[in-house]
Amino acid sequence: MTHPPDACPECDLLLRPSRPIVGEKIVCPRCGYLLHSPREQSVERVLALSVAGLILAGPANFLPLIGITFLGNSHEGTLWAGTAGLFAEGFWLVAALVFLSSIFVPLLNISLALLISLHLHFNRPHHLLAHWMRWLQHLEEWAMLEVYMLGIIVACVKLSDTADVQLGFGLYAFVALLLVNVMLTGSLDGYLFWQRIAELRRKLHGQG
Amino acid sequence: MGKAERGALAQGLVRCHACGHLAKLRRARHCPVCGGVLHARRPHSLQHTLALLISSYALYIPANIFPIMTVNQFGVIERHTIIGGIFALVEKDMAPIAALVFIASIMVPLLKLLGLSALLLNVRLRWQRHPQWWMRMYRLIVFVGRWSMLDIFMISILVAVVDLSGGVSQVIAGPAATAFAAVVVLTMLAAKSLDPRLIWDKQNKL
Ligand SMILES: [Zn+2]
Ligand SMILES: [Zn+2]
Hints:
The complex is a heterodimer of chains A (208) and B (206). Chain A is mainly alpha-helical and 208 residues long.
């Protein structure tokens, strides 16, 4: 079995790739771009992971990530308070960027993944499926949970010099959300998703 | 180099940016599979990258000379620039964290600015001697781009945790934070608007 002819998205080399089996990887012979690596039950995994992500998003955003005790005074900080604090100080551009990359885009990506995988799983065509998938592909790099995690670690080390640092429940939810996000990106087989979206599109146009 | 080394565009085929469908050039303006607009190469790729890069260079200066963070402790106000914050970490014997912040806040933005400038020259002047080598640099730039947000996120956490209301200690962002955040976003957009296929177009016989 062979794929229809394809071109490498990063070097435009014309290819006639063979259809890989699960666990195999098809790589561009010229530039090394990972063209396709099929995953087992990609749609179902994305569906399950995006539900888990939505459940974790609440506690990760609103429960305290870390708390400090300094001279008997204690105070806790949430993900949400980081954005709100910067906004209150008048740094609305920075606040907007932090909000987008740590809260909004990760949540939007999970919601889009849920919408798409739901439609694919139940074979329901929708005229916006391709739009959602394109948005998901564009927004992927603007979700920066792993960078935020590193920021939390650096902040903890800085604070531990002068104050007692306690880890909050929100931090565990945040780490879980981060892991779910990484697994979601890893389970999403873009090639398969586009193939299924194209099939559903034909179904939609055949009916109408 | 035989026919196998030729690019899709040289054979009249265009790959859809979004879904990867291969369409005949000039037959359709929109992808028949996903409905996205078809372009052989990202339109005005070099101009967009250049404009974003120049803006990034301009903002890189205020990002490094103004304070990025102000710490108010017992009424004593301490202002830290990016470099100053790193030195403060070294003085407190936190060298590994200092190295991390140095890489994310100094090395990565510099690599992006200089690397993208070199890539732009390489494509514009069609040097294109070692596309594999340039490609590796392009992918490194795309991969590391987001990690320069480290300092911004760290400040956002400090702002949230260190008591704002009537506490003895307070953390306020500095004017460099806006400039630095803009540098991160603009360089990410600059890397995104540079079409990597342009690196290969001499090999593609275009
Ligand atoms: Zn390639
Ligand atoms: Zn398409």
